[in-house]
Amino acid sequence: MAKILVIEDNEDLAQVVRTFLIFEHYEVESVFDGREGLQRVKTYEYDLVVLDLGLPDMSGLEILKALRSKGSKTPVLILTGQDAIEEKERGLDAGADDYVTKPFHMKELGARIRAILRRPAPLKDSEILSASGITMDVTKFKVTKDGQSIQLLPREFQLLEFFMRHPNQSFSSEVLISRVWQGGTGETESAQAALRTTMRRLRKKIDPDGALIKTVHGVGYILESAESATAES
Ligand code: CA
User: Fold this and answer.
1) Which one of 89, 129, 164, 183 has the largest count of C-beta atoms within 10 Å of its C-beta?
2) How many angstroms does the Cα of residue 131 sit away from the middle of ligand 1?
3) Could you give the C-alpha distances from 173 to 1, 27, 77, 135, in angstroms and in order?
4) Ligand 1 center from residue 55 Cα (angstroms)
5) Is pTM beyond 0.70 here?
6) What's the CA-to-centroid distance between 27 and ligand 1, angstroms?
7) Ligand 1 mean position, distance from CA 62 (Å)
């Protein structure tokens, strides 16, 4: 479940956005002031931040600049006033991923959030993910387990990469299908079957003991990693 932080001082609007995003199956936190928001983004990991630019204590733009100057790549969608074209420009220049103009329809906000979350992470020269003896070189499309090279099919690779990027979080099969393969709602029987097949093959190759990716009954799947838990704390 993607985790979204909403930084918006208008409590009524924040509440409406929050309710909508929860309904859209996101995990949502909201804060009403800028400093608290900045602190949270620095401390915790979010998949996306919805950021109001007009905040009383610290402007959204300052928050955005502070984050980007620290190297944070967390996607940011800004909320701006209707006539503030310069504000939008400044926001995008400062590293926002997109913006929505107030007043907006919740459906538009939802569509823009989905679009941002679908974007692949920016390419780097090399990006290595690791957990419990598994190492993934995401740019070179290589996987090793305890130093031994493992051949994965593209779908298996994408699934493993998703888990490695979100360790210790459980995901339902619907969420996996829509977030890993953008396969729409993920509620079709064929998509579910494809996921089960991919999961079975992936486990066979990298995790025959079922120690890494676990089934959470009634919920979905989780990749358990002590390393990343330590790194996050
Ligand atoms: Ca405001």
Assistant:
1) 164
2) 41
3) 11, 16, 27, 24
4) 5
5) no
6) 22
7) 14
Q: Ligand 1 center to residue 84 CA distance, Å?
A: 13
Alpha helix (H) ranges present in the chain? 11-23, 34-43, 60-69, 85-93, 106-118, 154-165, 173-180, 189-206, 226-232
Encoded tokens for 191 = 């998509």
For residue range 95-135, list pLDDT tens digits in order. 999 999 999 999 999 999 999 998 876 555 567 888 888 99
- Where do the domains of the chain lie, and which CATH numbers do they carry? 3-117 (3.40.50.2300), 128-232 (1.10.10.10)
Distance CA 48, CA 113 (A): 8
Whole-number Å distance, alpha carbon 111 to ligand 1 midpoint, is: 22
**Token match 């950021």: residue?**
51
